Amino acid sequence: MIARRQRQLWCAAIAAMPMLALGCAAAALWGDLDSVERATLLSLADARLPLLILVGLALGGVAAALAWQLSGRYAPAALRMADDVELVLGGQAGRAVEPLGAPEMLALAGQVNRLIAAYQGVLRDAEARAEQARASVERERNQLAALVTEMPQGVLACNREGRILLYNGHARVLFGAGRAAGEASLIGLGRPIEAVFDRRLLAHTRERLWRKLERTGARVLVSFVTATAAGRLVRARITPVLDPDLTRPIAERLNGYLILAEDITREAEQSARRDRLVETLTQSQRGGLASIRAAAENLIEFDDLDAIQRGRFLTVIRDESVRLSERVTDTAREFSDVLRSSSALEAMNGADLVSAAQRRIEARTGMLTKLEESDGEVWVRVDSFALVQVLTVLAQRVYESVEPREVRLAVVAEGAMAHVELSWGGTALSSESAAGWEMEPMLLAGEASPRSIREVLHRHEGELVYGRERASARSWFRVLLPLAESGDDAPGAAGQDGSRPEFYDFDLFAWGERGRALAERPLAELAYTVFDTETTGLNPSGGDEIIQFGAIRIVNGRLLRSERFEQLVDPGREIDTASEAIHGISRERLRGEPDISSVLPRFYAFAQGTVLVGHNAAFDMRFLQMKEAATGLRFDQPVLDTLLLSAVLHPNQDTHKLDAIAERFGVPLLDRHDAAGDALVTAQLFLRMIPLLAERGIVTLGQAREASEKTYYARIRY
Predict the structure, then answer these.
(1) Is residue 44 exposed (0-12), middle (13-18) or buried (19+ Cβ within 10 Å)?
(2) 346-482 falls under which CATH superfamily?
(3) How confident is the model at residue 178 (pLDDT cuts 50, 70, 90)?
(4) Domain 151-263: which topology?
(5) Do residues 350 and 380 make contact, with C-beta atoms less than 8 angstroms apart?
(6) In whole angstroms, what is the distance from residue 395 CA to residue 400 CA?
(7) How far apart are CA 383 and CA 441, in angstroms?
């Protein structure tokens, strides 16, 4: 559109040149003539002036037509070629110049494509060398990420400004538990740590940390306990991340903070329960002990008591002693329950369990043991200490009863159960003895446990089976335990597709100063929410409503595929037939979904603190603005539009529709006209546009918005 207007102005200028030349020649000639010659010329001009004007117009028309034809053959092709070359320089692999226009332009396009092929070959070689150089660093980075992901605690890291730059799946589960389905998570790269912990608590903790740092000059650790939004108690330990350069002051070495968090709700409940048991036992025994003491003192002090009085005091002592004994027994039983539930069950490989039991049996009993070949893929959820203690007690009692030469340990899977087997050859046990052992408190090397084998196995939803094989003269105990999935104690450790999600971005340590104006921030440093909506129709002012949200986040130049927002919305009205034909979302599909008043606050929280990015964003923003009065939510953050940015980058293209831009940039279209799918495509396009904008001197957010406002498409209103 701009190129066509330029051609028109250029051709008009060429058309005016013959008339301008004739006028200049006449003016020059007029200045050299005397009065007689001028009079003669004027008489000739009266007769010949129309002819001269026609000749000038004809010459101008011929020149304009020739210029129009030549510019049509060369200018558009040259401009399109410039766009294609820019995309190649922007890093789009496999891109080539499209041959257009005159034969000379076709020949030029061929030579340019040869240069592009050579250039891309050099780039591939350079990229291969760079990839080799990055491989070792990336391996270390991935190893650290894997280690953080598999840690049993929630791990959070933030920069010195309090922006989250790293977290693992445990942290996501810990601080997201109890939240409504589809609700925006508190955790996310680039989000403020104040969204997770109370601002005042963090300020107090940082002050404590800073005082310790200034006093010691070394790494320090500060702990605090807080409650999550779901009411869980969390113990957090925070330590500074310091630059290793010891010559710099502490204030300059502080890069950020590392936080380890663990759920201590169960621990706190058990501790409170134990305290109540101790308090109850103490308070309840005072009266009984006082009665026993008084009766005993009377018996000792008054030796002349008659038989009836002496019998009364002895009865008091007996009755109170019985009551005390019963209370102690009840308290011991309840304390045993506390012990039984005080430790969590963890996923453990069966082979590791029997290997640990073998070492403990040999260390505590001195018996000869042997591990039989076990299934390495058997996983169980156990309190490993309690289960190893059960196997060790069984081995010790077998040794004391029948003195076998050795015991063997193995684990196999049968159906939905794991069989942990302890077997021996020679003398067998009686079934009565084996059953009795299960009920008795465990005693090992003089140390007694208030729990019995049956109580331990009951907590594991397992059982103990004793048997004997007459053919091989071998006896065995089998501990039957439910099978568990491998690594199922690590929630959130894997992405939805089975791959490890990327929950880390170390480059965020370099986040700019908090006081820097947002408009002056480089585009590559900002956090973005790229979003799209599907609607009942195309008229937001006429009552059409949003029926689907899709959004994804970009932080520090990285697309975070795991941080998404997807939600259908019940519009409370029918859907326009033409719109349904495009996005395929029917009214029936939306029944039972939440309405906009429930969904919009969640999307608002997801997008908070970020720049909004959309394609033809004015359309989507109009729908959001129409809900400001009803919800009280105002989306007042900056907005960037990939349609406008495409017009800034490639003003000579005929269309800037999402499909056309995606084809131009080589971005695949997968779920077109699905809000989440379109948001993903838009995010990929936006990331590819950032370096091209930088080449034009458009580096900051303010510059991008200013350039967008100057395009023709910025005048469109909804």
Answers:
(1) exposed
(2) Histidine kinase-like ATPase, C-terminal domain (3.30.565.10)
(3) very low
(4) Beta-Lactamase (3.30.450)
(5) yes
(6) 9
(7) 17
Q: Which residue is listed with tokens 């019985």?
A: 322
What confidence category does residue 47 fall into, taking pLDDT thresholds of 50, 70 and 90? Answer: low
Residue, of 589 and 293, whose pLDDT is higher: 589
Burial of 694 (0-12, 13-18, 19+ CB in 10 A): middle
**CA 470 to centroid of chain Cα atoms:** 58
Higher pLDDT, 85 or 430: 430
Q: For the whole prediction, is pTM greater than 0.70?
A: no
CA-derived radius of gyration, the chain = 41
Q: Are strands 639-641 and 611-614 parallel, antiparallel or unpaired?
A: parallel
Lowest-pLDDT range of 113-117, 174-178, 462-466:
174-178
Q: Out of 47-51, 214-218, 455-459, which region has the weakest mean confidence (pLDDT)? A: 47-51
Torsion of CA 342, 344, 350, 355, to 10 degrees: -50
Q: Is 445 left (phi over 0), alpha (psi -120 to 50) or beta?
A: left
* Digit-coded pLDDT (tens) for 684-701: 999 999 999 999 999 999
Task: Give all strands (DSSP E) within 470-545, no chain letters.
Answer: 474-482, 527-535
Alpha helices in 523-641 (DSSP H): 577-583, 587-590, 596-607, 617-625, 628-631
What local confidence, expressed as pLDDT, does residue 13 receive?
60
- From the list 600, 543, 616, 541, the residue with the least C-alpha distance to 574 is 543
Strand partners, 474: 425, 469
* Residue in the structure block whose two tokens are 């002693």: 321
Q: Which two tokens stand for residue 298?
A: 């009377």
Mean pLDDT of 444-460: 72
* Distance, CA of 609 to CA of 621 (rounded, Å): 17
What is the distance of C-alpha 377 from the center of its chain? 30
φ/ψ of residue 640, rounded to 5? -115, 145
What lies within 8 Å, CB to CB, of 452 at 6+ separation is: 438, 439, 440, 441, 442
DSSP annotation of 244: S
Residues 665 and 690: beta-carbon distance below 8 Å: no
Q: Largest Cα–Cα distance of the chain, in whole Å?
A: 173
H helices within 217-264, ranges in order?
A: 250-253
Q: In degrees rounded to 5, what are phi and psi of residue 97?
A: -80, 135
Q: Which two tokens stand for residue 329?
A: 């027994």
- Per residue in 605-654, pLDDT (tens digit) is 999 889 999 998 888 988 998 898 888 898 888 999 999 999 899 887 77
Q: Residue 516: what pLDDT?
A: 47
Report residue 133 as tokens. 């150089």
**In the numeric block, which tokens belong to residue 620?**
């989507």
Find the catalytic residue in 458, 460, 615, 673: 673
Task: Provide CATH 3.30.450.20 ranges for the chain.
Answer: 151-263
**Residues 426 and 405 sit within 8 Å (Cβ to Cβ):** yes
Q: Given this model, what pLDDT does residue 1 score?
A: 45
Q: What fold characterizes domain 516-715?
A: Nucleotidyltransferase; domain 5 (3.30.420)
Residues of each domain in the chain carrying CATH 3.30.420.10: 516-715
Q: What is the pLDDT of residues 540-582, one digit of tens each?
A: 878 889 999 999 999 888 899 888 999 999 998 998 888 888 8
35 versus 528: the higher-pLDDT residue is 528
Got the DSSP string for 334-387? Answer: HHHHHHHHSS--EEEEHHHHHHHHHHHHHHHH---EEEPP--TT-EEEE-HHHH
Question: Sign of dihedral through CA atoms 183, 187, 192, 195?
Answer: positive
In the annotation, is 673 catalytic?
A: yes
The 3-state DSSP composition of the chain as helix, strand, coil percent (nearest 5) reads 55, 20, 30
Burial, 178: exposed, middle or buried (Cβ in 10 Å; 0-12, 13-18, 19+)?
exposed
Residues forming a β-bridge with 564: 552
Residue owning tokens 């030029």: 108
Strands 407-414 and 417-425: what pairing? antiparallel
